[in-house]
Design brief:
Layout (H helix, E strand, L loop, with lengths): L6 E4 L5 H12 L3 E6 L4 H14 L3 E5 L5 H11 L4 E4 L14 H29 L2 E6 L12 H20 L5 E8 L5 H14 L3 H9 L11 H12 L10 E4 L7
Parallel strand pairs: 1-2, 1-4, 2-3, 4-5, 5-6, 6-7
Helix pairs in contact: 1-8, 3-4, 4-5, 6-7
InterPro entries: 3-OHbutyrate_DH (IPR011294), NAD(P)-bd_dom_sf (IPR036291), Sc_DH/Rdtase_CS (IPR020904), SDR (IPR050259), SDR_fam (IPR002347)
Protein name: 3-hydroxybutyrate dehydrogenase
GO molecular function, one term: 3-hydroxybutyrate dehydrogenase activity
């Protein structure tokens, strides 16, 4: 599943799932563009590390995914976009009647609207190149719901719906659009939550993970960023040329319930 010569742009990719996907894309031969809203030495060092390890060209481009003009500028600055991976996202938990309006607006902007703007800017480049892949990182919450996550669930359902629209609009072209729907993924952010969960419920690590964090994930195992990256590489490959407009769940059986 070689992606040699392709350019992959991954939004929200200086940590966690996005960085894991970027690394797997690079291992498959794709040049990668990392992104976040910061612009630090560490951000650029991540890109250099990927270049040093894999030999591809890796760059970091700052863009705030809450701002539509910066989303579009990211694609323009990259200059090429064969593979677009819309991954940027934030979360807030509260009941609807207590959900801060500004948090709702931010989650919809970053988790949903950003993908509209980047896709709109990327499709002309894909059409010019005669090939393209749009891969949206949705969530199990794009297929089902949980209480107190109204904005996140709404945004992720929206991402799944928009994925289908893009797939239909490009169905007769060599461009595909699909969504990956992860369950709970072992990221540095999740790792940081485990000690607090252990303390709160007076449990050892394994019990806290199985009975609290992974209560809705039947496998009782986290997905890994490498697994998500491998799924994205597959969707970008020629083997997936006739897979479009669908979702792939990487959730340990969550949505099978």
């Amino acid at each position: 599943m070689s992606l040699n010569g392709k350019t992959a742009i991954i939004t929200g990719s200086n940590s966690g799932i996005g960085l894991g996907i970027a690394r797997e894309m690079a291992k498959a031969g794709a040049n990668v563009v990392l992104n976040s809203f910061t612009d630090t030495k560490d951000d650029h060092a991540l890109a250099q590390e990927i270049t040093d390890v894999t030999g591809v060209t890796a760059r970091y481009i700052k863009a705030d995914m809450s701002k539509g003009d910066e989303c579009r500028a990211l694609i323009e600055k990259a200059g090429a976009c064969d593979i677009l991976i819309n991954n940027a996202g934030i979360q807030h938990v509260a009941g609807i009647d207590e959900f801060p309006a500004e948090k709702w607006d931010a989650i919809i902007a970053i988790n949903l609207s950003s993908a509209f703007h980047t896709t709109a800017a990327a499709l002309p480049l894909m059409r010019k190149a005669g090939w393209g892949r749009v891969i949206n990182i949705a969530s199990a919450h794009g297929l089902t719901a949980s209480p107190y996550k109204s904005a996140y669930v709404a945004a992720k359902h929206g991402i799944v719906g928009m994925t289908k629209v893009v797939a239909l609009e490009t169905a007769e072209e060599p461009i595909t659009a699909n969504a990956i729907c992860p369950g709970y993924v072992l990221t540095p952010l999740v790792e940081e939550q485990i000690p607090d969960t252990m303390k709160k419920y007076d449990m050892d690590r394994d019990t806290a993970v199985r009975e609290v964090l992974l209560t809705r994930q039947p496998s009782k195992e986290f997905a890994t960023v490498e697994q998500l990256g491998g799924t994205a590489v597959f969707l970008a490959s020629d083997a997936a040329a006739q897979i479009t407009g669908t979702t792939i769940s990487v959730d340990g059986g969550w949505t099978a319930l």
